[in-house]
Amino acid sequence: MNTETDTAAEQARATPSEDSGFIARVIGAAGDHDAPLLRRLLADLGPADLADVIEHVPLETARTIARSVGRDLPPEFLAELSWERREEILPELPADYVGQALGQLDTDDAAAVAADIDEKQLGRVLAAADEDTRLAVEEALSFDEETAGRLMQREYVAAPEGGTVGSVIDRMRADSAELPDEFFEIYIVDAAMRPIGAVRVSSLLRSGRDTPLKEIMRAPLILIRPEMDQEEVAQTFQKYHMASAPVVDDAGRLTGMVTIDDIVDVISEESEEDLLKLAGVSEAAQTDSVFKSVRARAPWLLVNLGTAVVASAVISAFQDSITELVALAVLMPIVASMGGNAGTQALAVAVRAIASRDLNESNAPRYVLREGMTAVSNGLIFAVVLAGVVAFWFNSVMLAFSIALAVLITFACAGLAGILVPLTLRRFGADPAVSSSVFVTFVTDVVGFLAFLGLATLILLR
After folding, report:
1. Whether residue 171 sits in one domain with residue 100
2. Tens-digit pLDDT profile for residues 291-334
3. Predicted confidence band at 351 (pLDDT cuts at 50, 70, 90)?
4. What angle do CA 347, 349, 353 make, to 5 degrees?
5. Residue 151: CB partners within 8 Å, gap ≥ 6?
6. How many other C-beta atoms lie within 10 A of the C-beta of residue 42?
7. Within 10 Å of residue 177's Cβ, how many Cβ atoms?
8. Residue 248 resides in a domain
9. Which residues contact 225 (CB under 8 A, 6 or more apart)?
10. Which CATH number does the domain housing residue 296 bear?
11. Distance between CA atoms of 424 and 367, rounded to whole angstroms?
Protein backbone atom coordinates (compact mmCIF):
# COMPACT_ATOMS: atom_id res chain seq x y z
CA MET A 1 0.00 0.00 0.00
CA ASN A 2 1.40 3.40 -1.00
CA THR A 3 0.69 5.66 1.99
CA GLU A 4 2.17 8.75 0.33
CA THR A 5 -0.07 8.30 -2.71
CA ASP A 6 -3.16 7.82 -0.50
CA THR A 7 -2.30 10.94 1.51
CA ALA A 8 -1.82 12.97 -1.66
CA ALA A 9 -5.16 11.72 -3.00
CA GLU A 10 -6.92 12.73 0.24
CA GLN A 11 -5.38 16.19 0.07
CA ALA A 12 -6.46 16.52 -3.55
CA ARG A 13 -10.04 15.68 -2.58
CA ALA A 14 -10.06 17.99 0.44
CA THR A 15 -11.80 21.33 0.04
CA PRO A 16 -10.29 24.55 1.48
CA SER A 17 -12.90 24.55 4.27
CA GLU A 18 -11.59 21.12 5.39
CA ASP A 19 -8.00 22.42 5.62
CA SER A 20 -7.75 23.65 9.21
CA GLY A 21 -4.44 25.36 8.47
CA PHE A 22 -5.91 27.34 5.60
CA ILE A 23 -8.95 28.36 7.65
CA ALA A 24 -6.64 29.45 10.50
CA ARG A 25 -4.64 31.65 8.09
CA VAL A 26 -7.84 33.25 6.77
CA ILE A 27 -9.07 33.94 10.31
CA GLY A 28 -5.67 35.34 11.29
CA ALA A 29 -5.49 37.64 8.24
CA ALA A 30 -9.01 38.90 8.91
CA GLY A 31 -8.18 39.46 12.57
CA ASP A 32 -5.13 41.53 11.56
CA HIS A 33 -7.20 43.37 8.91
CA ASP A 34 -4.55 42.34 6.40
CA ALA A 35 -6.47 42.89 3.15
CA PRO A 36 -3.53 42.06 0.81
CA LEU A 37 -3.03 38.68 2.50
CA LEU A 38 -6.78 37.95 2.38
CA ARG A 39 -6.77 38.68 -1.35
CA ARG A 40 -3.87 36.29 -1.92
CA LEU A 41 -5.44 33.53 0.17
CA LEU A 42 -8.84 33.78 -1.54
CA ALA A 43 -7.69 34.66 -5.06
CA ASP A 44 -7.42 31.11 -6.41
CA LEU A 45 -10.68 29.82 -4.94
CA GLY A 46 -13.65 29.15 -7.20
CA PRO A 47 -17.04 30.61 -6.20
CA ALA A 48 -18.23 27.39 -4.52
CA ASP A 49 -15.04 26.91 -2.49
CA LEU A 50 -14.97 30.60 -1.58
CA ALA A 51 -18.54 30.40 -0.30
CA ASP A 52 -17.66 27.24 1.62
CA VAL A 53 -14.78 29.00 3.37
CA ILE A 54 -16.97 31.97 4.30
CA GLU A 55 -19.56 29.55 5.68
CA HIS A 56 -16.98 27.88 7.93
CA VAL A 57 -15.22 30.90 9.41
CA PRO A 58 -16.72 32.79 12.39
CA LEU A 59 -19.31 35.44 11.58
CA GLU A 60 -17.03 38.36 12.44
CA THR A 61 -14.34 36.96 10.15
CA ALA A 62 -16.87 36.65 7.32
CA ARG A 63 -17.96 40.24 7.84
CA THR A 64 -14.35 41.42 7.84
CA ILE A 65 -13.72 39.60 4.55
CA ALA A 66 -16.76 41.30 3.02
CA ARG A 67 -15.69 44.74 4.23
CA SER A 68 -12.00 44.38 3.36
CA VAL A 69 -11.94 42.54 0.03
CA GLY A 70 -15.61 42.29 -0.96
CA ARG A 71 -15.11 44.18 -4.22
CA ASP A 72 -12.45 41.67 -5.30
CA LEU A 73 -14.64 38.59 -4.80
CA PRO A 74 -16.34 36.94 -7.82
CA PRO A 75 -20.09 37.73 -7.88
CA GLU A 76 -20.96 34.04 -8.31
CA PHE A 77 -19.96 33.28 -4.72
CA LEU A 78 -23.05 35.14 -3.48
CA ALA A 79 -25.29 32.57 -5.16
CA GLU A 80 -23.35 29.71 -3.52
CA LEU A 81 -23.76 30.98 0.05
CA SER A 82 -26.50 29.71 2.33
CA TRP A 83 -29.23 32.28 2.78
CA GLU A 84 -28.37 32.64 6.47
CA ARG A 85 -24.74 33.59 5.90
CA ARG A 86 -25.62 35.67 2.82
CA GLU A 87 -28.10 37.68 4.86
CA GLU A 88 -25.39 38.36 7.45
CA ILE A 89 -22.66 39.60 5.11
CA LEU A 90 -24.66 41.48 2.45
CA PRO A 91 -24.88 44.65 4.61
CA GLU A 92 -21.06 44.70 4.70
CA LEU A 93 -20.70 44.70 0.90
CA PRO A 94 -20.84 47.97 -1.08
CA ALA A 95 -24.26 48.53 -2.66
CA ASP A 96 -22.77 49.29 -6.07
CA TYR A 97 -20.77 46.05 -6.03
CA VAL A 98 -23.87 44.01 -5.17
CA GLY A 99 -25.91 45.81 -7.84
CA GLN A 100 -23.33 45.06 -10.51
CA ALA A 101 -22.99 41.49 -9.22
CA LEU A 102 -26.71 40.88 -9.71
CA GLY A 103 -26.31 41.77 -13.36
CA GLN A 104 -23.61 39.12 -13.80
CA LEU A 105 -25.68 36.34 -12.23
CA ASP A 106 -28.41 34.32 -13.88
CA THR A 107 -31.73 35.96 -13.11
CA ASP A 108 -32.82 33.15 -10.80
CA ASP A 109 -29.63 33.46 -8.75
CA ALA A 110 -29.92 37.26 -8.79
CA ALA A 111 -33.44 36.97 -7.39
CA ALA A 112 -32.27 34.60 -4.64
CA VAL A 113 -29.53 37.03 -3.59
CA ALA A 114 -31.83 40.07 -3.76
CA ALA A 115 -34.39 38.32 -1.53
CA ASP A 116 -31.83 38.29 1.30
CA ILE A 117 -30.97 41.99 1.06
CA ASP A 118 -32.37 44.33 3.67
CA GLU A 119 -35.23 46.41 2.26
CA LYS A 120 -33.40 49.71 2.82
CA GLN A 121 -30.22 48.45 1.16
CA LEU A 122 -32.15 46.83 -1.70
CA GLY A 123 -33.17 50.21 -3.10
CA ARG A 124 -29.53 51.34 -3.31
CA VAL A 125 -28.49 47.99 -4.80
CA LEU A 126 -31.12 48.07 -7.54
CA ALA A 127 -30.26 51.67 -8.31
CA ALA A 128 -26.71 50.52 -9.08
CA ALA A 129 -27.90 47.65 -11.29
CA ASP A 130 -28.75 47.97 -14.97
CA GLU A 131 -32.40 48.36 -15.97
CA ASP A 132 -32.88 44.79 -17.25
CA THR A 133 -31.50 43.33 -14.01
CA ARG A 134 -33.63 45.65 -11.90
CA LEU A 135 -36.82 44.73 -13.76
CA ALA A 136 -36.03 40.99 -13.61
CA VAL A 137 -35.33 41.10 -9.87
CA GLU A 138 -38.44 43.15 -9.11
CA GLU A 139 -40.56 40.72 -11.11
CA ALA A 140 -39.07 37.72 -9.31
CA LEU A 141 -39.60 39.28 -5.88
CA SER A 142 -43.26 39.85 -6.72
CA PHE A 143 -43.78 36.08 -6.43
CA ASP A 144 -44.04 34.28 -3.11
CA GLU A 145 -41.02 32.52 -1.66
CA GLU A 146 -40.58 28.85 -2.56
CA THR A 147 -42.49 29.18 -5.83
CA ALA A 148 -41.46 28.61 -9.43
CA GLY A 149 -41.45 32.37 -9.98
CA ARG A 150 -38.46 32.64 -7.63
CA LEU A 151 -36.69 29.71 -9.30
CA MET A 152 -37.40 30.85 -12.83
CA GLN A 153 -34.49 31.86 -15.05
CA ARG A 154 -35.59 34.60 -17.42
CA GLU A 155 -32.85 33.88 -19.97
CA TYR A 156 -33.94 31.18 -22.41
CA VAL A 157 -33.62 30.23 -26.08
CA ALA A 158 -36.76 30.31 -28.23
CA ALA A 159 -37.26 29.82 -31.95
CA PRO A 160 -40.25 30.29 -34.31
CA GLU A 161 -42.14 27.20 -35.36
CA GLY A 162 -41.17 27.75 -39.01
CA GLY A 163 -37.42 27.85 -38.33
CA THR A 164 -34.73 25.37 -39.29
CA VAL A 165 -31.78 23.90 -37.42
CA GLY A 166 -29.32 26.08 -39.34
CA SER A 167 -31.19 29.32 -38.68
CA VAL A 168 -31.32 28.63 -34.96
CA ILE A 169 -27.62 27.79 -34.75
CA ASP A 170 -26.67 30.92 -36.71
CA ARG A 171 -28.81 33.12 -34.49
CA MET A 172 -27.37 31.63 -31.30
CA ARG A 173 -23.84 32.22 -32.55
CA ALA A 174 -24.66 35.81 -33.46
CA ASP A 175 -26.27 36.49 -30.08
CA SER A 176 -24.00 34.30 -27.96
CA ALA A 177 -23.62 37.01 -25.29
CA GLU A 178 -27.38 36.84 -24.66
CA LEU A 179 -27.52 33.06 -24.23
CA PRO A 180 -28.05 31.51 -20.79
CA ASP A 181 -24.92 30.04 -19.22
CA GLU A 182 -26.56 26.62 -19.29
CA PHE A 183 -29.56 25.43 -21.28
CA PHE A 184 -30.77 22.03 -22.40
CA GLU A 185 -33.66 22.78 -24.73
CA ILE A 186 -34.74 25.31 -27.34
CA TYR A 187 -38.41 26.17 -27.01
CA ILE A 188 -40.45 26.37 -30.18
CA VAL A 189 -43.08 29.12 -29.96
CA ASP A 190 -45.98 30.32 -32.06
CA ALA A 191 -46.62 33.92 -33.12
CA ALA A 192 -48.04 34.72 -29.66
CA MET A 193 -44.91 33.38 -27.86
CA ARG A 194 -46.77 30.34 -26.58
CA PRO A 195 -44.54 27.22 -26.40
CA ILE A 196 -45.74 24.46 -28.70
CA GLY A 197 -42.72 22.20 -28.43
CA ALA A 198 -39.10 21.84 -27.45
CA VAL A 199 -35.94 20.66 -29.19
CA ARG A 200 -33.16 19.13 -27.15
CA VAL A 201 -29.73 20.61 -27.83
CA SER A 202 -28.46 17.08 -28.47
CA SER A 203 -31.14 16.57 -31.15
CA LEU A 204 -30.26 19.91 -32.72
CA LEU A 205 -26.59 18.97 -33.05
CA ARG A 206 -27.42 15.61 -34.65
CA SER A 207 -29.66 17.14 -37.34
CA GLY A 208 -28.78 18.71 -40.68
CA ARG A 209 -28.95 22.47 -41.15
CA ASP A 210 -31.99 22.32 -43.40
CA THR A 211 -34.03 20.17 -41.02
CA PRO A 212 -37.25 21.95 -39.98
CA LEU A 213 -37.54 22.36 -36.22
CA LYS A 214 -41.03 20.88 -36.34
CA GLU A 215 -39.59 17.53 -37.43
CA ILE A 216 -37.33 17.13 -34.39
CA MET A 217 -39.32 18.92 -31.72
CA ARG A 218 -41.35 17.20 -29.07
CA ALA A 219 -44.31 18.59 -27.18
CA PRO A 220 -43.34 20.09 -23.80
CA LEU A 221 -43.96 17.50 -21.10
CA ILE A 222 -45.29 20.09 -18.69
CA LEU A 223 -45.80 23.84 -18.53
CA ILE A 224 -44.86 25.43 -15.22
CA ARG A 225 -46.84 28.30 -13.75
CA PRO A 226 -44.83 30.84 -11.72
CA GLU A 227 -47.06 30.49 -8.66
CA MET A 228 -46.52 26.69 -8.49
CA ASP A 229 -44.89 25.55 -5.25
CA GLN A 230 -41.23 24.64 -5.68
CA GLU A 231 -41.75 21.23 -4.09
CA GLU A 232 -44.42 20.43 -6.66
CA VAL A 233 -42.08 21.60 -9.43
CA ALA A 234 -39.34 19.32 -8.08
CA GLN A 235 -41.70 16.34 -7.99
CA THR A 236 -42.71 17.07 -11.58
CA PHE A 237 -39.08 17.09 -12.68
CA GLN A 238 -38.49 13.82 -10.85
CA LYS A 239 -41.60 12.16 -12.27
CA TYR A 240 -40.90 13.05 -15.90
CA HIS A 241 -37.07 12.95 -15.74
CA MET A 242 -36.79 16.53 -16.98
CA ALA A 243 -33.68 18.68 -17.34
CA SER A 244 -35.60 21.92 -17.82
CA ALA A 245 -39.18 23.12 -18.18
CA PRO A 246 -40.77 26.25 -19.67
CA VAL A 247 -42.57 28.72 -17.41
CA VAL A 248 -45.65 30.46 -18.83
CA ASP A 249 -47.83 33.36 -17.69
CA ASP A 250 -51.63 33.52 -17.44
CA ALA A 251 -51.92 33.88 -21.21
CA GLY A 252 -49.69 30.88 -21.83
CA ARG A 253 -46.78 32.99 -23.08
CA LEU A 254 -43.23 31.82 -22.45
CA THR A 255 -41.60 33.93 -19.73
CA GLY A 256 -38.68 31.80 -18.55
CA MET A 257 -37.50 28.33 -17.62
CA VAL A 258 -36.62 26.25 -14.58
CA THR A 259 -33.48 24.11 -14.83
CA ILE A 260 -32.35 20.98 -13.06
CA ASP A 261 -29.55 22.68 -11.07
CA ASP A 262 -32.13 24.67 -9.13
CA ILE A 263 -34.30 21.59 -8.67
CA VAL A 264 -31.38 19.71 -7.09
CA ASP A 265 -31.11 22.52 -4.52
CA VAL A 266 -34.85 22.40 -3.88
CA ILE A 267 -34.83 18.64 -3.33
CA SER A 268 -31.91 18.97 -0.92
CA GLU A 269 -33.57 21.80 1.01
CA GLU A 270 -36.96 20.09 1.22
CA SER A 271 -35.44 16.77 2.31
CA GLU A 272 -33.40 18.49 5.02
CA GLU A 273 -36.45 20.44 6.14
CA ASP A 274 -38.60 17.30 6.40
CA LEU A 275 -35.86 15.46 8.29
CA LEU A 276 -35.54 18.29 10.82
CA LYS A 277 -39.29 18.61 11.21
CA LEU A 278 -39.57 14.89 11.90
CA ALA A 279 -37.36 15.49 14.94
CA GLY A 280 -39.38 18.55 15.95
CA VAL A 281 -36.69 21.02 14.85
CA SER A 282 -37.60 23.78 12.42
CA GLU A 283 -34.07 24.71 11.32
CA ALA A 284 -30.48 23.98 12.24
CA ALA A 285 -27.98 26.14 10.39
CA GLN A 286 -24.35 26.08 11.52
CA THR A 287 -24.57 29.86 11.97
CA ASP A 288 -27.52 29.68 14.39
CA SER A 289 -27.09 31.21 17.84
CA VAL A 290 -27.87 29.28 21.02
CA PHE A 291 -30.97 31.42 21.59
CA LYS A 292 -32.29 30.76 18.08
CA SER A 293 -31.72 27.00 18.46
CA VAL A 294 -33.46 26.95 21.85
CA ARG A 295 -36.42 28.94 20.53
CA ALA A 296 -36.83 26.52 17.61
CA ARG A 297 -36.67 23.36 19.69
CA ALA A 298 -38.20 24.24 23.06
CA PRO A 299 -41.91 24.31 22.02
CA TRP A 300 -41.94 20.69 20.91
CA LEU A 301 -39.94 19.63 23.95
CA LEU A 302 -42.67 21.28 26.03
CA VAL A 303 -45.33 19.27 24.20
CA ASN A 304 -43.23 16.16 24.74
CA LEU A 305 -43.04 16.96 28.46
CA GLY A 306 -46.83 17.06 28.62
CA THR A 307 -47.19 13.68 26.92
CA ALA A 308 -44.47 12.20 29.16
CA VAL A 309 -46.40 13.37 32.24
CA VAL A 310 -49.49 11.55 30.97
CA ALA A 311 -47.43 8.38 30.42
CA SER A 312 -46.03 8.71 33.94
CA ALA A 313 -49.57 9.05 35.27
CA VAL A 314 -50.38 5.69 33.69
CA ILE A 315 -47.42 4.14 35.51
CA SER A 316 -48.49 5.82 38.75
CA ALA A 317 -51.91 4.16 38.53
CA PHE A 318 -50.14 0.78 38.83
CA GLN A 319 -47.65 1.67 41.54
CA ASP A 320 -49.13 -0.90 43.95
CA SER A 321 -48.64 -3.63 41.35
CA ILE A 322 -45.05 -2.51 40.71
CA THR A 323 -44.33 -2.51 44.46
CA GLU A 324 -45.73 -6.03 44.77
CA LEU A 325 -43.91 -7.38 41.70
CA VAL A 326 -40.62 -5.55 41.09
CA ALA A 327 -40.07 -7.41 37.82
CA LEU A 328 -42.69 -5.14 36.26
CA ALA A 329 -40.45 -2.10 36.79
CA VAL A 330 -37.56 -3.98 35.20
CA LEU A 331 -39.48 -5.06 32.11
CA MET A 332 -41.90 -2.22 31.31
CA PRO A 333 -39.26 0.02 29.61
CA ILE A 334 -38.59 -2.81 27.15
CA VAL A 335 -42.20 -2.85 25.97
CA ALA A 336 -42.41 0.93 25.55
CA SER A 337 -39.00 1.14 23.86
CA MET A 338 -39.73 -1.58 21.31
CA GLY A 339 -43.13 -0.09 20.58
CA GLY A 340 -41.56 3.35 20.12
CA ASN A 341 -39.09 1.99 17.58
CA ALA A 342 -41.85 0.21 15.68
CA GLY A 343 -43.89 3.42 15.59
CA THR A 344 -40.91 5.47 14.42
CA GLN A 345 -40.29 3.04 11.55
CA ALA A 346 -43.89 3.28 10.37
CA LEU A 347 -43.85 7.07 10.81
CA ALA A 348 -40.69 7.50 8.74
CA VAL A 349 -42.22 5.50 5.89
CA ALA A 350 -45.48 7.47 6.09
CA VAL A 351 -43.90 10.94 6.19
CA ARG A 352 -41.61 10.09 3.29
CA ALA A 353 -44.56 8.78 1.27
CA ILE A 354 -46.62 11.90 2.03
CA ALA A 355 -43.72 14.21 1.14
CA SER A 356 -43.14 12.43 -2.18
CA ARG A 357 -46.91 12.36 -2.91
CA ASP A 358 -46.85 8.55 -3.04
CA LEU A 359 -49.38 8.39 -0.21
CA ASN A 360 -52.78 9.92 -0.97
CA GLU A 361 -56.43 9.37 -0.16
CA SER A 362 -56.89 6.75 -2.87
CA ASN A 363 -54.15 4.40 -1.65
CA ALA A 364 -54.20 5.28 2.07
CA PRO A 365 -56.17 2.14 3.06
CA ARG A 366 -53.53 -0.05 1.41
CA TYR A 367 -50.73 1.74 3.32
CA VAL A 368 -52.63 1.45 6.60
CA LEU A 369 -53.27 -2.27 6.06
CA ARG A 370 -49.64 -2.90 5.12
CA GLU A 371 -48.22 -1.08 8.13
CA GLY A 372 -50.75 -2.71 10.45
CA MET A 373 -49.93 -6.22 9.18
CA THR A 374 -46.19 -5.50 9.30
CA ALA A 375 -46.46 -4.30 12.89
CA VAL A 376 -48.52 -7.34 13.95
CA SER A 377 -46.08 -9.72 12.24
CA ASN A 378 -43.08 -8.12 13.94
CA GLY A 379 -45.06 -8.08 17.19
CA LEU A 380 -45.61 -11.84 17.00
CA ILE A 381 -41.93 -12.50 16.32
CA PHE A 382 -40.61 -10.37 19.17
CA ALA A 383 -43.40 -11.37 21.55
CA VAL A 384 -42.22 -14.98 21.26
CA VAL A 385 -38.55 -14.00 21.61
CA LEU A 386 -39.13 -11.76 24.63
CA ALA A 387 -41.45 -14.30 26.27
CA GLY A 388 -38.68 -16.89 26.09
CA VAL A 389 -36.17 -14.47 27.64
CA VAL A 390 -38.56 -13.48 30.45
CA ALA A 391 -39.57 -17.07 31.19
CA PHE A 392 -35.91 -18.05 31.55
CA TRP A 393 -34.94 -14.86 33.44
CA PHE A 394 -37.77 -14.75 36.00
CA ASN A 395 -38.90 -18.38 35.86
CA SER A 396 -42.52 -17.31 35.35
CA VAL A 397 -44.65 -18.54 32.47
CA MET A 398 -47.53 -16.18 33.28
CA LEU A 399 -45.21 -13.14 33.37
CA ALA A 400 -43.81 -14.23 30.00
CA PHE A 401 -47.35 -14.56 28.65
CA SER A 402 -48.26 -11.09 29.96
CA ILE A 403 -45.32 -9.36 28.34
CA ALA A 404 -45.79 -11.26 25.06
CA LEU A 405 -49.40 -10.14 24.80
CA ALA A 406 -48.44 -6.57 25.76
CA VAL A 407 -45.73 -6.47 23.06
CA LEU A 408 -48.18 -7.69 20.43
CA ILE A 409 -50.77 -5.05 21.40
CA THR A 410 -48.14 -2.29 21.55
CA PHE A 411 -46.63 -3.17 18.17
CA ALA A 412 -50.07 -3.20 16.52
CA CYS A 413 -50.97 0.20 17.97
CA ALA A 414 -47.51 1.60 17.14
CA GLY A 415 -47.75 0.57 13.50
CA LEU A 416 -51.23 2.03 13.12
CA ALA A 417 -50.26 5.23 14.95
CA GLY A 418 -47.20 5.63 12.72
CA ILE A 419 -49.39 5.79 9.62
CA LEU A 420 -52.67 7.21 10.98
CA VAL A 421 -51.21 10.12 12.98
CA PRO A 422 -49.51 11.84 10.00
CA LEU A 423 -52.55 11.15 7.79
CA THR A 424 -54.85 12.70 10.41
CA LEU A 425 -52.63 15.74 10.87
CA ARG A 426 -52.51 16.29 7.12
CA ARG A 427 -56.30 16.01 6.92
CA PHE A 428 -56.60 18.85 9.47
CA GLY A 429 -54.10 21.02 7.59
CA ALA A 430 -51.11 20.49 9.90
CA ASP A 431 -47.64 19.55 8.69
CA PRO A 432 -47.27 15.83 9.53
CA ALA A 433 -43.48 16.08 9.54
CA VAL A 434 -43.47 18.59 12.40
CA SER A 435 -45.59 17.07 15.15
CA SER A 436 -46.18 13.42 14.27
CA SER A 437 -43.25 12.03 16.26
CA VAL A 438 -44.50 13.56 19.52
CA PHE A 439 -47.96 12.02 19.19
CA VAL A 440 -46.69 8.64 17.98
CA THR A 441 -44.32 8.46 20.97
CA PHE A 442 -47.22 9.40 23.24
CA VAL A 443 -49.36 6.57 21.85
CA THR A 444 -46.63 3.93 22.08
CA ASP A 445 -45.64 4.92 25.64
CA VAL A 446 -49.18 5.03 27.01
CA VAL A 447 -50.30 1.86 25.24
CA GLY A 448 -47.08 0.04 26.15
CA PHE A 449 -47.25 0.85 29.85
CA LEU A 450 -51.02 0.37 30.07
CA ALA A 451 -50.98 -2.94 28.20
CA PHE A 452 -48.11 -4.49 30.14
CA LEU A 453 -48.94 -3.22 33.62
CA GLY A 454 -52.67 -3.78 33.13
CA LEU A 455 -52.28 -7.32 31.81
CA ALA A 456 -49.72 -8.24 34.45
CA THR A 457 -52.02 -6.92 37.17
CA LEU A 458 -55.00 -8.90 35.84
CA ILE A 459 -53.09 -12.12 35.18
CA LEU A 460 -50.57 -12.25 38.03
CA LEU A 461 -51.98 -10.20 40.90
CA ARG A 462 -55.72 -10.86 40.89
Report:
1. no
2. 766 776 777 778 888 888 998 999 999 988 888 888 999 999 99
3. confident
4. 115
5. 108, 230, 233, 258, 262, 263, 266
6. 21
7. 5
8. yes
9. 148, 247, 248
10. 1.10.357.20
11. 14
